[in-house]
Amino acid sequence: MTAFRKAVEARDAEAIEAALADDVVFQSPVAFKPYQGRALTAAILRGVLRVFEDFRYVRELSGDDGRDHALVFETRVGDVRVEGCDFLHLDADGLIDELTVMVRPLSAAQALSAAMAAEFPRIQREATGS
Fold this sequence. Notes:
With about 130 residues, the protein is of the alpha+beta class. Helices cover about 40% and strands about 40% of the residues. A hairpin with a 5-residue loop joins strand 3 and strand 4 (about 70-75).
């Protein structure tokens, strides 16, 4: 998990994408339907890098099998303080095949939703290469 964490903390979009499995499933904290695939998930995470400010991981938890991890973070979206957690599952190759993000409080989820909605046209262009 260190590679993904370091990539996120360095805001290295290429290294983040390299940590994702081709068939990764991303569960957003502000969307009901999961997003599937490396290209779309990587584009979403690039959007997140654009809207999160002062991001930092504050705790890391790992399951006994080494394939499940939780990375607790703190950040801001504009003036709104956000607390959250990235829940990750690794496939047999050590790539992230499941990524679920949760945030709190409600005001943070609302701020994130609005900021990501503004990013989504760009995210879609990046994901499709158009």
